[in-house]
C-alpha cells in the first residue's frame, strides 16, 4: 500500500513538472516576443545615434533613416576627454570590484563560521547600515575631512566597495554550498584559515563571487554621484559623469543660443548625442554581462530552497 502511494506521489510530481507541447510552444512564442520588445528599443537608440540630426528634425525617429551621420560621436570624442574618462572608469571598476569582492567575501566567510566568537556582534554590526544611513553629509565629512580623499581616485572606489546585501548573499552561499565536513577535514590536516579560504572556499564559491562581482561592476560603471561630490579635477572624471556634463552643456547651448547671440545651432546634434551617450555608457556592460550570466543565476538562487 505504501509503495503504491509513493508511486502515485512520484507520478503526480513528474506530471506537475512536465509541460505539454502546446504550452511549450505558447510560452516560447510569448517569451520570444517579450525578449524582442526588450531589445528593439536599444536597437532604435543605436540607429538614432548614427542618424543625421536634420533628418531627425524632418522625419523623426526611423529604423532606416534617410541619412546616416557620425556627428554625435565626433563631438563626443573630439577633445580626447572621453578616452581619459574611459580609462578612469575602467580602473575604478576593475580595482573597486577586486577590492570589494575580497573584503565582502572574507567578511561573509567569517559570518558563516558558527564557531567564530564574534559572529553575532559582526552580524548585527553589518546589518545596521541597512537600517540607518549616515546620509550624504556624514559620508562627505568622512571622505573629505577625515580621510582627505577629495580629488582622489580612491574617493570613487572606497564608498561603494562594501554592501550588506552582498555580504548576506555570500554568507548564505557559504552556508549552503560549502560542506562543514570539508572545512573540518582541512583543519585536521593542519591548514590555516587563509589556506582554507584561498584553496577551498574560493574555488567552490565562483557563482556567488561572480554575482557579487557583477553587482559591483554595475555599481562602479554607472556611478556618477561620487564624482559630483568629491571630484573637481578634470583628470580623473569618470565616464558617466563626463557624458552627463557634455549632454547638459550641449542641451543648454542649444536652448539658449538666441540669448547668447549664437547662430546655426540647429546643426547641434542634441538628440543624437543623447542616444550616443546611452550607447557608450551601456554597451560595455552589455558585452561583459554574458560572461557573468552562467554564474549569476546560480549565485542568486543558492539557498533559496533548503531541503
Report on the architecture of this protein.
- One of its GO terms (biological process) is transmembrane transport.
- Helix content is 72%, strand content 0%.
- It is mainly α.
- The protein is built from 14 helices and no strands.
- The protein is globular, with a radius of gyration of 26 Å.
- It has two domains: 2-72, no CATH class; 73-301, MetI-like (MetI-like fold).
Shape: globular
User: Helix segment count?
Assistant: 14
The major pleated sheet works out as: none
CATH class of the largest domain: Mainly Alpha
Look at the structure and name the CATH superfamily of the largest domain: MetI-like
By CATH, the topology of the largest domain is: MetI-like fold
Q: Please state the second-level CATH architecture of the largest domain.
A: Orthogonal Bundle
Which structural class do the helices and strands define? mainly alpha
What is the count of β-strands?
0
Task: Provide the succession of SSEs.
Answer: HHHHHHHHHHHHHH
Number of domains: 2
- Mean pLDDT across the residues is 78
Helix content: over 70%
Kindly provide the radius of gyration, computed on alpha-carbon positions and rounded to a whole number of angstroms: 26 Å
Strand content: under 5%
